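protein under study:
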Amino acid sequence: MAHKVHPKSFRIKDAADWYSRGYYGERFPKLLEEDFKIRGFLHRRLAGIGISEVEIERFPGRINVLVSCVRPGLIIGRQGQGIEELRQKLQMLVFGGNAKKKGGADLKVEVREIASPWASAAYIGQSVASQIEKRMPYLKVTKQSIEKAMTSREVEGVRIQLSGRLNGVEIARTAWLAKGRLPRQTIRADIDYAITEAHCTYGVIGIKVWVYKGEKQQKNQN
């Protein structure tokens, strides 16, 4: 059998970095659980805005939450009201509304704009999922998404894989389409990878997206 490895973890410290990083100390299990709660909350609350990544940096007395998305203006809101409200809700989620009892930690939310949405595997997956939920034919949606992604300068190859009761058929199966180069065995290959789900009346469709953006030079190990 083939040995499958997550493309992100396969390239950690060579062409990629962890989504959670910083100072965790002896409270590592509890703080890592907080990271999962933060990500889950943001993906639920900001669904449809096109979130690509949620990175969390921890320092003594400070937490930075970095959100990469397609439409940052919808998060920031007028005069920053939206992002301030989001920060307060995250503060309630993490500290229960009383940060001082937790050592006075300060939580900061930073929103970054994705310059090329169709070069983001997460955005492509969310776009495919939303169209499949509207009962669009999966083959048409997949082909159109791949063509749009290949128009981006930095994209050299795309692969989209779907699993489940495609188009509502009785027997579940797996189908995929690809275009361009996609060297998944090469560590220096810069591959953006994302998993998402389309929740339909006939069941859940799993969607995996690989986007190849060329090669990155490995960091000097000496």
